[in-house]
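Posted in: Structural Biology > Protein-Ligand Complexes

Title: Requesting predicted complex, flavin mononucleotide in pocket

I'd be grateful if someone could produce the 3D structure tokens for the following input. Sequence and ligand are given below.
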Amino acid sequence: MKVVAVLGSPHADGPSNVIAKEVLRGAKEAGHDVVIYEINKMNVKGCQACGVCKKNYCDCIQNDDLKPYWKDLHEAGALVISAPNYCSQICGPMITYMNRHYCLVSNLPGKAPVRVHPGIKLIGVFSQGWDKADAYLDTYKWYLGDFQNRDMELQDILVHAGNMPYDEGSELMTRAYELGKNL
Ligand SMILES: Cc1cc2nc3c(=O)[nH]c(=O)nc-3n(C[C@H](O)[C@H](O)[C@H](O)COP(=O)(O)O)c2cc1C
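-- Reply #1 --
Done. Output follows.
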């Protein structure tokens, strides 16, 4: 199956990227194909509220670096999303990315209300400076909820908080690998 990952941090070696990539290592070991989008390196515009997706029951028509993503998502069996926490929220570029999924819901009569196949397995990986691991859990759940509203099935949320270790053999990395392996 295809596993699509969207990584939000500008830190290549920061915890959110490293832990998400450990999920992907597990997924590859399980035989899955992995496609990675690194939002910080991409030109991704916000939703233009043009309404084309709503009128035409289609994916977002914007010609930016998310263009190939929609096909990958329609083919995906799993979506792995990672982001750092900025100002008590998901970092800005990942909110912008999330907003673009507006195109996947519809209220056209006679059409399915969600335009992507149901059951895409969803994993969220977040990192925050505050060592209170559950401090922002509601925020992470709210964010992933937008994907669950598109009939995706949440598997787990991994939170790296404060100085939690994320080196090889650490609890977080073991959980991450197992999550990927069991997709
Ligand atoms: C602009 C900015 C705002 C931040 N705001 C918060 C915050 O409100 N709460 C928090 O716990 N950590 C905050 N942090 C810390 C990051 O969430 C933390 O360093 C995280 O581990 C970064 O993950 P990454 O290296 O995977 O990107 C902030 C960092 C930056 C750069």
